[in-house]
Design a protein that fits this description.
Elements: H1 3-26, H2 32-50, H3 57-91, H4 97-130, H5 133-141, H6 153-172, H7 175-178, H8 184-203, H9 205-208, H10 213-242, H11 250-280, H12 283-292
Helix pairs in contact: 1-2, 1-5, 2-3, 2-8, 3-4, 6-8, 6-12, 8-10, 10-11
Length: about 300
């Protein structure tokens, strides 16, 4: 398969889905649409890094800036949505009516915060629509899929291995942080690094074939567990310390904080178990060797 043709197809795939999710968010089609838009924009930005060189750098920088604005504004909205779901799950553990009423007051407060953030998000989406960011990207990619100067399967592997190896090494460089359970910022950086490696592997899954799937599953596990840890850290540092509660509700909030710390500890221990096992099994060494010498589909 031609390198440029494959790269253009992947980028266009993310562009099309970004447009779909953007329209869903603008028309208020549920909280899931915000999350889907965020994830797809991250995949698009990662693909632009993986397949760099296909678009003018100056215009690309401006487009990336617009997408970062969307990500920054939607991030607290996503966090509040996940937090609301967490509070609903915790509510099932409560037995007393007074405790449930107190928790529902917290949930109403969270929803109020979310509503206050929506105007900024809509304004940013209106701007990116007005600028025709995604249309500009798609237009800029036209013609590249027909070029063959950088084609060939061998060349595809040579190009992509550099990107994937860089992502893998960036994650491995944080190995010592994995064993520091209270290093909130460090574990957050590990989450970002694992996310970038995951998206990079998924972007070239079609090229490498089924053999790469086990590595994707392993990195996905790290990403999800580190994501859960990050959620707990955000809730403990921001939301669970900023609720404006009645005096009679403070005991419920205190128990919720304690439950959240315990839950974080359980997820962290699960993460470190998988991470340590992966290091013992030479997971990353095998991954990098596979990327270096892939078995074609």
């Amino acid at each position: 398969m031609n390198y440029q043709r494959f790269a253009v197809e992947r980028i266009n795939y993310y562009i099309r889905h970004s447009n779909v999710y953007l329209r869903q968010v603008r028309s208020n089609q549920g909280v899931a649409s915000v999350h889907r838009l965020r994830v797809n924009l991250r995949r698009l930005r990662n693909a632009l890094w993986m397949f760099r060189g296909l678009l003018p750098e100056r215009r690309l920088s401006a487009w990336k800036k617009d997408m970062r604005v969307i990500a920054q504004i939607s991030s607290p909205i996503r966090d509040l949505d996940v937090y609301t779901g967490y509070l609903r799950q915790y509510e099932r553990l409560l037995t007393g009516l007074a405790a449930k009423e107190a928790l529902n007051r917290l949930i109403r407060e969270v929803r109020h915060r979310r509503r206050n953030l929506l105007p900024r998000l809509r304004k940013a989406l209106d701007l990116i629509t007005h600028k025709k960011v995604f249309e500009g990207m798609a237009q800029g990619l036209k013609g590249f899929s027909q070029k063959t100067s950088r084609g060939g399967t061998t060349n595809i592997y040579r190009i992509y291995r550099k990107r994937i190896l860089k992502r893998a090494r960036n994650l491995l460089a944080l190995d010592a942080i994995a064993y520091q359970s209270s290093n909130v910022q460090g574990l957050h950086q590990m989450r970002i690094a694992s996310k970038r490696l995951r998206y990079s592997l998924e972007a070239v899954q079609e090229i490498y074939g089924r053999g790469i799937n086990s590595y994707i599953r392993g990195v996905l596990r790290f990403h999800r567990l580190l994501g859960q840890i990050h959620d707990y850290d955000v809730w403990l540092a921001e939301y669970l310390t900023s609720h404006r509660v009645h005096a009679k509700d403070k005991s419920v909030l205190k128990r919720l904080q304690q439950y959240t710390r315990i839950s974080r500890g359980k997820v962290y221990r699960e993460f470190i178990r998988h991470w340590s096992r992966a290091q013992q099994d030479k997971f990353f060494k095998d991954l990098m060797e596979y990327v270096d010498s892939p078995k074609t589909p």
